[in-house]
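for the writeup, i need someone to sanity check this before i put it in the appendix. the sequnce is what the collaborator sent (i think, or maybe the updated version? ugh). structure was predicted straight from it, no edits. if anything looks off just tell me and ill rerun, i have time this weekend
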Amino acid sequence: MINNILLDQLLSLGFSNHDAKIYLTLLEKGPSTAGPIIKATNLHRNIVYTSIDHLIARKLVTEKTVRGKKLFSLASPTILKDEFEQKNQLANLAVKRITEKMIQEIQEINIYQGNDEYLRLLTNIIKSLPKGSTIYVLGTGGKDFMDYTMWPIWDEYHKVAFAQKIKIRMISYESQRTALNLDEHSKKIYEIKFLPANIENPAGIHIYPPANTILNIIYSDANTPVTAIKIKNKALTHGYLNLFNNLWAMGKK
């Protein structure tokens, strides 16, 4: 009964059926030559010698010559534990390297259109960020974008932003200053600077460094719904963040 349990355990540890039987035979008989092992296992001698070679290679069985005959015996069973601890370390290292490789290669590009999708997109990203994160907005879209998209979703968007304790650092343009008429409550999470109107960009950029994500915003008007292109790319996110910081230094409050 005990041998059957041990056999199942050895098979679970990756032993072949033959290797496991020979290992258990040596456990039962103690040091032995090949003959008694062949007789006890009823295996062909070639199979027995092949399995013994496997076990010796794994340092689970030792071999010595006594009076001209090879005598085989089990090594300390802690070798078995050490072997699998080494494999576990190798597996952990492999998993780490594979994960790092996957993270480097992950790039997601998705397109969202219309106020409802835009609101879900913004709030889902914000909810995924650590509380207290700063997000960066380059461009505010002017009166049409505010009237047709931002004011209709304003309360829901800022409810989530306040819950996550988000800070928003924003660069707008002088031509958009009057359209960006924030109430006193909203102003608590915004820090805004303005650039000259003559360098205004016709699209907006949202930058979310903790999520390695940027949004390219095509502004809405009376005839065109808002469109957001979401790109998840670490290098691109940090590149846009550097651009934002350079423009921030040029801006005026």
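Residues 2-74 form a domain with the Arc Repressor Mutant, subunit A fold (CATH 1.10.10.10). The beta strands are 61-66, 69-74, 108-113, 134-138, 167-173, 190-195, 203-208, 213-218, 227-232.
thx in advance!!
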